[in-house]
Amino acid sequence: MAARADEAQQIEIPASFPSGADVAGRRVVLTGAGRGLGRVLAHAFSQAGASVALVARTVTDLEKLAADLPGPSLVLAGEVTDEAFNESIADAVVEAWGGLDVWIANAGISPAVGGPRRTDPAVWREILDVNLTGAFLGARAAARVMDEGGRIVFTGSVLGERPRAGLAAYSASKAGVVALAKGLALDLAEQRITVNVVAPGWFDSPLVEPWKQRPALGEAVLAHTAFGRWGAATELVGAYLFLASAAASFVTGTVITVDGGYLLT
Ligand SMILES: NC(=O)c1ccc[n+]([C@@H]2O[C@H](COP(=O)([O-])OP(=O)(O)OC[C@H]3O[C@@H](n4cnc5c(N)ncnc54)[C@H](OP(=O)(O)O)[C@@H]3O)[C@@H](O)[C@H]2O)c1
Hints:
alpha/beta; Rossmann fold; 7 strands; about 45% helix; globular
């Protein structure tokens, strides 16, 4: 007991603790920024005082978003499966803002709904290429220019932990993202760069539109979400802000699931 009391006395309480959402001044790359969840994340980081490099293929989406944001941004249109493009993103951010603090690999696709015989191997490769290889190439580019304290965040999915019929390729890509994050967290620990995953449940966005068009599938989603509703993209931003903030300095190689209880049911 006496030893424990001594230990407690040695803990110094700082005058202020880091806020779990303070990203002011952070220089952020955000892929998949053009619409859906990424668009909301761009607003969240910009409103919080970060500079945000907006990445997607459709330049008009990015230009409109950049015009709407309150803070500094860059428009970098391209393909996340392209190694050279990822390296050029890192260079552009360093040139514009003097460094890179956070890379959020959020671009993702889910085009195939069907079993193995209905999933064209070319589509399988495309899903793995964008969702998994894109995340790897982004992290690889980030690690080249990031200093100590850098943050890499991948967007995963609850389907990476609990696949659904017809979505095997997507589920495999998102399970891969978790293993990738854990492996890179070990590789980059020496550089004091953290690597984590945010795994959303079911959120309203253009990506899930095909599910909503099929009432039976949409109902299955809701039946398995403990909260009984789709998530709003605004409910997802806190996890990303936290992982990008100073408060998460000792959080690495882990998954934050934001799913209204989907994985519980
Ligand atoms: N919505 C959900 O319920 C949900 C649930 C779990 C996980 N997620 C994940 O969350 C992330 C965002 O999903 P979302 O719902 O916001 O999807 P979304 O509305 O379809 O938006 C996807 C974004 O990624 C960009 N993108 C797609 N392929 C790209 C590529 N090859 N290179 C560069 N950019 C690319 C798209 O723009 P361009 O097409 O113009 O390139 C778009 O800006 C994805 O990783 C998705 O798997 C979503």
